[in-house]
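Weekly structure sync, notes
Attendees: PL (lead), two postdocs, one rotation student
Agenda item 3: pending single-chain targets
PL asked that the sequence for the first pending target be pasted directly into the notes so everyone works from the same version. It is reproduced below exactly as submitted, 209 residues in total.
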Amino acid sequence: MTRPVSPHPTTTDLLVLHTLRCTGFTGLAGVATATGLPEPEAESELIDLALAGLVTRTAGDFGGWGLTQAGRAADAERIAEELAAAGGRTALTAALERFLVLNPELLDLCTAWQLRSTDGSLTANDHTDPAYDARVLNRFEDLHQRAEPVCAELTAVLQRFSRYPARLADALARAQAGELAYVTDSTASYHTVWAQLHEDLLATLGIPR
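Predicted structure, written out during the meeting:
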């Protein structure tokens, strides 16, 4: 009998480091949300990474955390080692191909959310037509259901990918509940999380944009 293979775990410091690789410059709350770690734990890891010269912090109201060049190089090396240890390159490559089939549809839906055709020309969607917005959100729901199996394939290889379907589902639920910024206009929006997942797949496989 074949024993089920558990998803490969990611060390907490690499999880935080790689989150900055995929999100770019962001604040502590953003790191905590993306990693699923409590803020004090995320901050502790960030401080340790900063002492190692892998991340840097900018102070101020618009400050946050970002990778140094050394941090970017260290992340690339460590996630390549992680993928090799998991033996998951073939599975992740196949999942990326399925993701790329869905990606143009996601971009079209974001355009449909932001713009509407009025009298033959495109205008900004002012969200005063609930029926129109509901139709677009229904299409997002359909896309999300088809994206879930792809996310499950990723999570089966590397446990850290499990955060994406949870964050996508949360963004969609908030949008459906009336928090419309969670479609495209928030740092935790469906579009933003999707873009981070895309970046994570490419980075993990070592594929340049």
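Discussion points:
- The longest helix spans residues 130-157.
- DSSP finds nine helices and four strands in the chain.
Action: rotation student to compare against the earlier draft before next sync.
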